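RETRY 2/3 - previous attempt timed out on the joint model. Re-submitting the same 591-residue input unchanged.
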Amino acid sequence: MLKYQHLLYSRSLSKDYRWMIVPQGSSADDLKKLRELYDRYDIHKGKKAFHEADIDSIYCLQLSSITVLIRCCLSDYKDEYGREIYCLQGISISPAYKRHFWFALPWLLANHMASLNTWQKVNFQIADELRSTASNDYELDLNFNKLPLSDSSNIVPDNTLPDDQILLSFNSDGFKQLLRFISSPHTPLVDFAFGTTPEMTQISNSFKIVASAQSRTGLQAIGDGILSILSWNKRTT
Amino acid sequence: MKVTMVGISGSGKTTFMSALYGTLGGDNHMNNFRIFPAASNINEDVLEAGKFKALDFATQNFKFPDGTQRSTLWSFDLRYRDKFVCNYEWIDYRGGILTDISSEEIQSDEQKQQEVTELLTHIALSNAVIFFVDSFKLTYYQNIKEARYRSGANIINQVFESYNRFFPSRPLVFVILLTKADEVNESWKTNNYEPLIKRGMEVFEPLISIGKRNNAWEGGIVPVSAVGEGNARITVTDPPNIQTPVLVDSKIVGFPEPMNAGHALFYCLGEVLSKMQVEAQSNIDKYEQEIVNALQRAGLTNRLWSLITGQPSYDQVAKDFFEERKKEYLSLRQFEIYVDPIYTTALEKVKKVC
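RETRY 2/3 succeeded.
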């Protein structure tokens, strides 16, 4: 059983952007880092690359107190001035459940529209009242009996990864590559930024997989992605 | 010269930047005055001009800008027939900071405290402040207290009462912008928006009355619209209860023709330049001492100010600031000839309130 909590940084009808739901046990520094990530997304959220991508921006970050899998995206709501409401939303996992999270990650990613949808759990009509409200506990029951027995928090040694960042294209093809990569039993739990800008990536130097929302040509990006994964496959076989 | 924009989220600060572009940016001009993002080389010039142009309604596919989570600092050059008149910094603070001032969370959120202190420091260092308030909200809510609360005017009144207590003889130039003036009911628009202006003065009565008592304050009020009359269509959803605000969805339906955006800026610049002319010759030392004293009294502000500027002590920072101000005063003399045209143009639309 994977236990997790939700997090939501967004605005409501008449209250400006703030932490609305925070995971219990998260440190102030980690929340600050995530807010910084959102602030940098905010600068570029109007970019064509974000709007035209057929998929949301998704990030996996192992922070000091929690590990998060989050999306930066539009919510389904508008504020009192008729403006679209954006958000950072997703789930948070405590260190105790990191291995379960690694195991569940492909499923969570494949179902990200539902699994990383904190807004779905919030009643918008009363959302103005939410301010750093502690998340409830949630549980996910997958076939965790297949989870390899190991005491190590590093499920797969990091040295099986290529030294360079793996670059993917920010579209559904890139997302399929990400899923394939993450689903491999040889892949350890890695930080990734799928749909990002250079400013956002600077938040952490641990992003191992990056799909940039910059205007690289599609062919360039697909080529880079295939080459990165091929080079990694070579090292693990 | 520094101009700070103050208003709650949704009051129209970012949209006003689009209106400024449509009035004075790019190929647009007002009585031969234009503004350009300041740049020190051609690369920066092209990039900054591109950033400014990105605010143009046409570039944004004729949509109102999304609410912003960030504060933005612009540096502009004002030019008259391509001759440099003055440079000014323009600070667009994220509106949420203002509402954070009165939130419970501020007590425990260090980052928000820093943001608020930074805003207050910038206000204290600004030559002019522009207050943004949504005209629709002012007129929709009949109860004056509710109008103040919903429009954020109550927080502005409160902050500037404190400002007056801390800096009693510090000159303050302000202009109240009644934004989205095109969205109000026709009855508020008669006789050149006189009823709307009267309502604005009523809502800001605490602020204006301080201005009337304090000779160092100069203030004006002006209705503005970023898109102009008839170019936006609004859908209003009345609130089901007191907890919910009125919902207003506004869409651009005609080519934007900003109304009075340039006048608001010119009022600030004109007032500040006029004041500077007068003050250039006197009182700088007295002024400096007053600020130093005020800073000594302002515990947290000073600590954060030192943090922000990297300077070790507040009095040194204040001294440096006033040295800079002295230089600014001296350089003013070269553009004295432009002060009257700027100010006269502004007063065509801006009503003086104190």
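The mean pLDDT of chain A is 85. Closing ticket.
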